[in-house]
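Hi P.,

Sorry for the delay on this. The queue was packed all week, but I finally got your sequence through. Input first:
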Amino acid sequence: MPAKRRVAQLLMLALAVVVVMGAYANVGLAMDEKIPSGMLTYGLSLAGLMLAAYLVLAKFAPWADPLILPLVTLVNGLGLVMIYRLSESDSPLPSAKLASPNTQLLWTLIGIVLFSATLIFLRDQRALQRLTYTAGAAGLFLLVSPLIPGLGQELNGARIWIGIPGVGQIQPAEFAKLALVIFFAGYLVAKRDVLALAGRRLLFIDLPRARDLGPVLITWGVSLGVLVMQKDLGSSLLLFGTFIAMLYIATQRISWVIIGILLFVGGAVLAGLVFDHVQQRFEVFLNPGDPELFVKIGGSEQLMQGLFAMGSGGILGTGLGQGHPELIPLAFSDFIFAATGEEIGLTGLMALLMVYALIVERGLRTSIAARDPFTKLLAGGLSFLLAWQIFIIVGGVTNLIPLTGLVTPFMSQGGSALLANWILIALLVRMSDAARRPPPQAIQDEGLTQVFQR
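Then the structure:
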C-alpha cells in the first residue's frame, strides 16, 4: 500500500477510536454527570488493540482495502459503549446485570489475535480451495455438535451451544458458517459449468436439470434439520440463503434463486405446522401486540419492548445514557440494535447501517476485483453472509420478519460471534490485498531482447 494510504488508514482508525471515546464520555456525563473513571483505560486498550491490528495488516497485507479495519473498529467500539451503558444502569433486570464491558473487551482482544493470526499464516487465500471438502466436513460437524449428548446445551429454548470447561458456552454455528462458505466457494467453482446448464423452460424461467438439484436439496435438508432439531431459525435461514446467493453468483441463473426461495418458504411453513416452537415464532411475528403472547414465556415481550424503545427514541434519539434500554430483555445481545436505536434515534441507526453497508460494499468490491474464480466467490459469499445476517437481525428486531435469535455483528455481547466475525474480516482483508496488489513487472534483459529481435 502506498505510504499516503497507510497514513490515511491510520488517521481513519484514530478517528474511529476518538468517536467511540466521545460516545463513552457522553454516556458517563448523561448518567453520572462526570466522565467515566475507566475511560482512559478503555480508550488506550481499544487504541492499542487496533494499532496492533493495523501494524499486522501493514506488514502482511499492505495492499489491503484501507477502509475495512476503521469501519469495523467503529462498530466494535460502539458495541462496547452500549454494553458499558447497560452495565452502569441501576436496574435489577437481567439486561443490566449480565452486560459486561470487561468481558467484551477481552473477547475483542482475542478477536484481534485471531485476525492477526489469519493474516500472518494465510498468505494466499487460494490455499483454502484445497481444503474444500475438509471445510465442508468441519462445518457440518460444528453445525450439529450441539446435538451430541453431554456436549450440547439448550439455552433460551434453542440447542445451539456447547459447554467447554473453563471457557463456558460457545456457539459453534458461528464458526461453521465460515467453514461452509469456504466449502460452497470451492464446490461451486468446480461444478459451476454443470450447474449453469439449462433444462426445461417453464414460463419465462429456464429450470436447471433435475440431476443438478442435488446440492440445493441437500443444503435445504440440512438447513431444515437445523431449524427442527436445534430450534435455530437464524442459522437455518443464514445457511440456506448464503448458499443460494453464492449459487447465483457462480451460475448467473435466476432460476436457482426462485427455487431456493420456494424451498425455504415451503420448509418453514411445513415446520410451522408441525413444530410448536416454530409456530410460536410466527404467531409472535403476526400478532406481537396480543396481550396473551406478551406475558407468555418466549412470547412477544422482547419484541414489543424493542419496538417501544425505538419508538420513544424517535428521529434523533433520547441521547446516549438517557434512555431505558435495560427494560428490553437481552438488550446486550439479541436486541442491542433496538437498545442503541432508542438513544441515537432513527438518524443514528441509518448512519450505523451505512457503516455496515460500506463494509459489505468493500467486500463486494474485492470480489469484483479478484483475479481468480475461487477468490471472487469466497469474497462475494462472505460479504453476502455479513449483509444477510444484518438484514435478518434488523428485520427481526423491527418485526419485518420473524425473530431468529441472531446477534448484531461486532456489537452484541458474546465471544463466538465476535471471534468468527473478526476471522471473516481477516479473510476479506487478505483477499482485498491480493486483488489490489499490482501484478509483478516483467524484467527484460536488453541483450536478450536484441538477440531475439535479430
